[in-house]
Amino acid sequence: MMPSKRNTAILILGMHRSGTSATAGTLYHLGVSLGKRLLSPDGCNERGYFESHNVLQFNHDLLAALGYTWDDPRELPPDWEASAATKPFRARLREIIEADFAQSPLWGVKDPRICRLLPLWLPALHESGARTVVVFVLRNPMEVAGSLIARSPEMTTEHAQLIWLRHNIEAELQSRELPRVSVDYARLIADWRGEVARIGKSLGINWPIRPEAATPEIDEFLGEDLNHQNTADQPRRPSGKLQPWLMPLYRCLQHLDNPTLESDIDEISRRVARPAQISARRCLWRRHGLLPRAARKLRKLAQRTGPSAKWRA
User: Fold this and answer.
1) Nearest to 108, CA basis, from 177, 33, 58, 204
2) If you average pLDDT over residues 235-258, what whole number do you get?
3) Rounded Cα gap, residues 238 and 234, in angstroms
4) CA distances from 265 to 30, 164, 165 (A)
């Protein structure tokens, strides 16, 4: 069912632990509807996720139907959105949009999984009649990796960097036809008033609650203790096989208003594709405990065949 009056849907896109909750919470205090049932705060996010329970469950189930999880380092299958596995999810997503959001003049959805699931989300939003815009939330990839590992100590730096690349590259590519603006988490914490003014101007949005009226709530919400990971706690430069592409991509994404940088992002995506494929395989080996056994086999083989540059490497 089409809404009687065209509304605006804000897609809050960004990698896990990138400040999407802080951004969504800020917009919530400005009057943006984020759904009828939001996730409760917990030890990993004490101020709340500002995510719709129905949206989160939908995205979780969709990834599971494809054989993936939120932190899966692999590429999604080609044309996955048209596969038989996704067929029941198309109607389900339309129902969620209609039931939870369609009657709100200004609404938003926030779940980092959407970064990878836009090929299914965008047609559903188009069918709903909503004017769809994007707030692309960014955070220094070193800080994101630190935050992910602090929450999930079993995750390696390589794994954290890889899924940061996957989420951001896929979200940027799939959202190019939409009005969008990038928001850096550090800037939001430092000057939320300037950021929400810039978002509103870039996307043509008048906030239902004036920023002046929402100031006490937002100031308290974005307290100084919100940023638990910052670059002062991290190495001065990213390390690992994926590091050459992290900061260049981060800098490009900070300027989404400059379409000439899209070719730079395409080049980064092309050059990182093969290393990312190798890293994904290695991350899965580690997850399933295969890498140590493989390493032992290589060492034994090297012992049998004698020293060689191949096995020493």
Assistant:
1) 33
2) 84
3) 8
4) 32, 14, 11
